[in-house]
Amino acid sequence: MIFTKTRYLLSCTLLLCTFAVLTRARSWDLAVVIGNEIDFFGRNSTLTGHANVGDAISLAGVTYDDTTKTMYLSDVDNKDVAIFSIDLTEKENFTMTSLLKKEDGMHIMGIVFDKESRTLFWADALNETIAKMHVSQSGEPSSPVVLHNLAGNSPRGVALDVCNSHIYWVNTKKASIERSNLDGSDRIIVIKERLYKPLAVTIDQAEQKMYWIDDVEGIHFKIERSNLDGGERELLIHGTHQQPVYLAVDDELVYWSDWVHSAVWSLPKNATVGEPKEFKSYYMSRRTADPSGIVTRDNIGTIDCAAILSKMNKMKSLSASQVTTRNNQSFNSLITSTEDSDLTTESSKYCLNNGHLNKTDGKCRCKSGFVGSFCEVSLCHNYCLRGKCFINHREHPECLCSGSFSGARCEKDVCDGYCLHDGKCSIEKGKPQCSCKYSKGTRCEEPNDIATICAIYCASDRETMPSVTSCRCTDANRTAERITLSDSFQASTLLSIFLALIALLLLIIAGLGYYVSVLRRRRVKKRFVVGKGVTPLTSRPQLSDQCEITIENCCNMNICETPCFEPKLRNAGMSRSNSTKKEEKNSLLDNMEGNSC
After folding, report:
1. Is the pLDDT of residue 482 over 70?
2. Which of 458, 494, 555, 564 falls between 20 and 30 A from 472, CA-CA?
3. Higher pLDDT, 353 or 324
């Protein structure tokens, strides 16, 4: 009995641990905002998610709270909201929660979040201020507080040094990079020399380095880095024909968004020589917006500041020790022997994950699967989203996916959308299989269970759904036949009405044609040469008391002012006699007495 309870408790513990691991699994490494959308990527540039954000218009700055799974964004074109948040635990239809209302002149380009104090910091380029606001997990945010008034500097990018509680920002007009404590005290200029127009800055928390973008005059740009105090300044890239605007780093790469090519680029942050790689191009897919803010999970997740600062101190001590050792290498063999012993000790202390310290150059030689100055970075760290990571023969990380997931990093659920018509998906022998309800086929793509569908259709009566006619489903085949006949009847009725309308239109056209033809035949145009008091002439002699009459012109009152009496030229079924013709001519002449043409 005791054994059974122990086994039960152990099983529950394993289930809870498995659940905890699954809930901690990351679904994205990098997020990029563009227009009113957010794209989520894995480190290998695989698109793992996409979101349309409510009433957002032009997203700019972005930051993330990994504890509450909340993303904070700024919108430069929204007339009502300057900063808002979205809850990423929602699977679809992300809704905006307003944190800061838009006021005249606000143009917030960069934002950062300190999860320890739950404080949001931002740089306002038009108001030329650095401000902050406390964001409560429950309740309304506090009123914003101006941290620095930077009139004439036009601050743009902003970054946070979590471990040292410092905030950094770049000034684009008076080109410089500054920092202060989070309460605004101890404000100093970190870098001022050899800057043209800095646009963005970010802090690498793990390596305690500062990175920034400098929009150099003309078509050139630079991405540089240094220690947090501005020392040991390094040039990573001096490129052309780009306009970098936002910057981010993770454990391996530095990323920036470019408005010239409408793309996101990446570069190994510790590479001495290298060309940037196009991480994601939006040039052909979205021409109406360019990528803006970037945020990485590695640089904002769980940060062990104690370990980081301890490592930095050890690195400084090691550097000093190596300098002293190199200066004393010319002494004697006893000192050399002592030096080898010290280096062996340093190897065990500073080369992590079983790395080995090279005695010649003082650098760590890492075992397969680890990189970094001290072999502190595992290539498998957070690489596989839902699976087990291992290092292949090319010394690259590779994933062995579990369950229904596939892809280079196990980011795709093969069952997602695979079974149609409410079919249930399961994995059998590594392949998706469907269990169908109302259909058949490999993916339940062919509906066939008419009886079940009919039962569902006829379940509603007039009270619950007045627009649906109640029916009996005792005979499924008869009901299905009735539904089919009803559809056929509706189709035939519509066809009959359409043909009737066409026939009516043809009759109207024929009638109008006949009517026009009759009117044209009734036009009277006949010429007479007559003389007053004499009989009609068979020829046209030149006599002054004679005139020519055109009955059509006379009827139209275009030539003669004499009233026109149109003769009855047509009598149905009868021909006119000669006496009738003479009477008509005489009547015409009598009416012309006293008038001339």
Report:
1. no
2. 494
3. 353
